[in-house]
Amino acid sequence: MIKTVRCVVILAALIFSARALCLAQSSGETIYKAKCLNCHGPTGVANSGIGKLMKVKPVTDPDVLKMSEKEMIAAVRNGMGKMQAYKDSLSEAEIKESVDYFRSFIK
Length: 107
Fold this sequence. Notes:
This protein is mainly α. It has helices at about 1-35, 35-40, 50-55, 60-65, 70-80, 90-105. The protein has one domain (about 25-105): Cytochrome Bc1 Complex, Chain D, domain 2. The longest helix has about 35 residues, at about 1-35. It is elongated and about 65 Å long.
């Protein structure tokens, strides 16, 4: 009986840890899809109707490529051009995670 309880506790701990790790890894993607996808597109190419209308630069644009992570975080926090500021709706960690996800499109 004690071995069974011990196994169940260990299994539950492993499942919880794996789930937490999985959620942590996908939070930047989740935020990007919720807040950025409509304008920047699923791969950062900005080829959606709204992206084209707002003249959003794709991730491959030289001006975007030369931006540092810090500059991108500031753009998300404070807004840039027609892009709204997210400082009131996203935490600093969420902003960084979404920028990290966006930067993963840069190859």
